[in-house]
């Protein structure tokens, strides 16, 4: 039940308003990459913080293992989904979504 509550509250807890996009992030490609990397690190840290909190609420080891397995499956999905949309880094700019 607590996991369901966390998942329902996640968009509120970790909304786009939490990260403050700097005004010079669209100056050039380097600044966009730097800001995007910073935003990734911010949200990665926030996800890890929330994961640690959730693990602390779980009472039994088997529930903790289910959460670990679910998170590993989600990371695999995320990576494959990203690969579907953008392809490999070395193929950047050569693939469109309609291919």
Instruction: List the secondary-structure elements in sequence, H or E.
Output: HHH
The coarse silhouette is flat
How much helix is in the residues? 55-70%
Q: What Rg, in angstroms, do the CA atoms define?
A: 17 Å
The residue-averaged pLDDT reads 80
**Helical stretch count?**
3
What profile does the largest beta sheet have?
Answer: none
How many angstroms does the end-to-end distance come to? 41 Å
Poorly predicted runs are none
Structural class designation: mainly alpha
Total strands: 0
Per DSSP, what share of the residues sits in E-state strands of 2 or more residues?
under 5%
Can you describe what's shown?
The chain is an all-alpha fold. The chain has three helices and no strands. The model has no long low-confidence stretch (mean pLDDT 80).
Summarize, please.
This protein is mainly α.
Descriptive keywords:
99 residues, mainly alpha
Compile the SSE list and pairings.
Elements: H1 2-13, H2 29-57, H3 61-86
């Amino acid at each position: 039940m607590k996991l369901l509550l966390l998942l329902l509250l996640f968009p509120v807890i970790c909304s786009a308003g939490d990260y403050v996009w700097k005004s010079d992030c669209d100056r050039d490609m380097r600044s966009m990459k730097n800001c995007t990397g910073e935003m990734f690190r911010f949200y990665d840290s926030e996800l890890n913080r929330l994961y640690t909190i959730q693990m602390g609420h779980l009472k039994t080891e088997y529930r903790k293992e289910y959460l670990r397995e679910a998170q590993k499956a989600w990371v695999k999905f995320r990576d494959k989904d990203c690969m579907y949309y953008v392809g490999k880094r070395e193929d950047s700019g050569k693939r469109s979504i309609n291919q």
